[in-house]
Amino acid sequence: MSSTSRARLGEEVWKLRTDKINAELVTLTYGSVVAQLCKDLDGDYVEVNKQLDKMGYNIGLRLIEDFLAKSNMQQKCANFRDTADVISKVGFKMFLNITPTIANWSSDNKQFSLLFDENPLADFVELPDDGKAQSELWYSNMLCGVIRGALEMVQMSVDAHFVSDVLRGNDTTEMRINLIRYIEDEMPQDDE
Amino acid sequence: MASTPGIPVIAIIGKQNNPIYIYNSRLPLPSTSLTTSLDLHLLLHSTLDVFEARLPQKTADQDFGLLFAIDERLAAYGWMTNTGVKFVVIVDQGFNSSSALSTRGGGLGGAIREADLKPVFKSIHTEYIKLISNPFYDHESKEMVKSKKFSAALEKIAETGIPGVY
């Protein structure tokens, strides 16, 4: 399946097979989750990142099923480059109606970056001005967990983390995804 | 000669009449009674009385129009959302054109119509919504807002002035 037909597939799934929800509702819901975590954990942003990632992981485990059902992907991705393309053009398109740009491939084709031109989760957000949040909190860290969880269910063990965020004053929002290995056999699931 | 009446001051005042944000671009304003920030606060306090006095007659409309004229150049206009948050805009009609009053032939507050302020208040309202939608915004806080995004947005609104007015 070519890259353009994936883009078309993403568009089609978004238009025809996705139940829509009001954008502000999503933004405010995600925002209150993050803000409440920050409050409950007393501004320990490293821990907040971890919790967000964990929540995302649990979402990813379930979301992949929905993704496969709705997208009707007929064949497996041949390589990791294909996977990246599907994540961006079909996955993000159908769940958030965005298509992050794929960039910065490593030479061994095992690492790439997703560049988010827009991020519906982070509309309206301004990080707290406490001298810490700007350097420690990855506001949209749940997305990393989602990707990690979803790929794990299709036999890929990956590491995903943000390396820059416009909320912190960076020029771009960039997530780095690193393929650790393909999981060969059914392994007992990581109990998180 | 066309000119845009300036907006030197935009104030956001909370439900409890607590100041939320006060934008002022160029105090002291030349040849007016508004010279220090103390004057400004006093003035904003007096607008609250007008809001309160007119409230019983208000319908659902949020536009309070001209609150009062301050002097030959300045006039205060008000807007109150249905949640009790008030926006006050002070308009400087002498800004950019000394002939603004004579060309429109109006007296105080005559050079611009109240409807002209509507788009200005609408955009302030939009920015205010964005501000309070920030999940880290503290609604219980009695402190003034420090958001840089919000300040920048208000500054832009003030600099744009009132479009389409001569």
From TrEMBL, chain A:
Q: Which UniProt keywords apply?
A: Endoplasmic reticulum, ER-Golgi transport, Golgi apparatus, Transport
- Subcellular location(s) of the protein: Endoplasmic reticulum; Golgi apparatus, cis-Golgi network
Q: Where does it sit, as one GO cellular component term? A: Golgi apparatus
The family database entries (InterPro entries) matched by this protein are listed as:
Bet3, NO_sig/Golgi_transp_ligand-bd, TRAPP_component
Protein's GO biological process: Golgi vesicle transport; macroautophagy
Return the similarity comment: Belongs to the TRAPP small subunits family. BET3 subfamily.
Protein name (record): Trafficking protein particle complex subunit BET3
Automatic annotation (TrEMBL), chain B:
Q: Which GO terms describe its cellular component?
A: cytoplasm
Q: Which Pfam families match?
A: Sedlin_N (PF04628)
- Report the SUPFAM superfamilies cross-referenced here: SNARE-like
Q: Which Gene3D superfamilies match?
A: 3.30.450.70
GO BP, sorted A to Z: endoplasmic reticulum to Golgi vesicle-mediated transport
What InterPro entries does the database record attribute to this sequence? Longin-like_dom_sf, Sedlin
- This protein is called Sedlin
